[in-house]
Amino acid sequence: MATSNSVGLFSSFNHQQQEWLTYKNRLEQWFIANNIDQASDKAGVRRRAILLSALTESTYQLASNLALPDVLETKSYSEVVELLDAHFTPKRCVFAERYHFHSATQKVGETSAQWAARLRGLAAYCQFKNIEEALLDRFIMGMQSGKEREKLFSKELGELTLAKAIDIAESVRCARAAASATLAAAATAAVPGAESLLKIGETTAGRGNKCSVCGLSSHKAENCRYVNYKCKRCKKKGHLRKMCNLKYVESEEVSEDDDGIQNTLLQGNHQHSWYLVDN
To answer: Could you read off the pLDDT of 232-270 as tens digits, one per residue?
Structure first.
């Protein structure tokens, strides 16, 4: 929406996607940048044409309906703006706006500067007599628990402004982040390979479950090579003897399991003494 000789750009206006007040303010700034004002456009014909040509089809139709029984194109620029102002400016309840303001809290991941900016937006229609004091109170009371809030709580009210409170909170946050980074770097330097060990630990953290077939933890039961073996104790297929639910205490010096792993047993007189234990 600009000619080759104009300064700056502005988009068309779609009331279903954009806020009218924000768009109107941007349009006014565009007029200023291009020296289009009451003096150069006394009748407002040029400004009206620019505004109407910037409306999308659906918004233009809406504006035409609002102008009825008059024709939209016969309205002056100021009259068109008044029509759109009346339609798009919501009726606001001051106490409802104040409720939203006083119930607001800092979001997770929201910086102090972002939190303060959001509060200013919420206070726009609250009609506070002392807006800076209200902003400072809500800024501190609505902060997430942490060192930043504790630091601000320790300050005297007389020495704080909103700008100073934001600066203090940001300083504490930066100091905490720097301290954490320093500790992490020191820990890595003190233990060579600690970072690699940590990654290995994270990779193998989920391998603690043992295979119900052979008892090893390097694979799952369905992938075990002994899955079709028959147990020599219960004579059932699907597990080795050492994983059988029917356990024996065997008084033999050494016994070899199905998979060739030797197990030390109780020593006796080289005779088998069997004790059947049902788990």
So the answer is: 888 888 888 888 887 544 433 334 444 444 343 333 333
Angle at the Cα of 80 from the Cα atoms of 77 and 83, rounded to 5 degrees: 150
List, for the chain, all residue ranges whose pLDDT scores fall below the cut of 50: 197-198, 200-207, 248-279
CB 101 within 8 A of CB 123: yes
> How far is residue 160 from each of residues 151, 152, 182, measured CA to CA in Å?
12, 9, 31
In this structure, what is the dihedral angle of CA atoms 191, 192, 196, 198, given to the nearest 10 degrees?
-10
Give phi and psi for 124, each to the nearest 5. Answer: -60, -35
Sequence ranges of the domains in the chain: 20-88, 94-166, 210-279
Whole-angstrom Cα distance, residue 218 to residue 206? Answer: 11
- Residue 264 in 3-state DSSP? strand
Bridge partners of residue 246, in order along the sequence: 278
CA proximity to 215, closest of 252, 250, 258: 258
Do the Cβ atoms of 258 and 232 come closer than 8 Å? yes
Structure tokens at 129: 């007599």
- Specify which residues 254 forms β-bridges with: 264
User: Is residue 236 classed as helix, strand or coil in its secondary structure?
Assistant: coil
User: Is the bond preceding residue 90 a cis peptide, omega within 30 degrees?
Assistant: no
Phi, psi of 103 (to 5 degrees): -95, 0
Read off φ and ψ for residue 276, nearest 5 degrees: -90, 125
pTM for the predicted model, two decimal places: 0.46
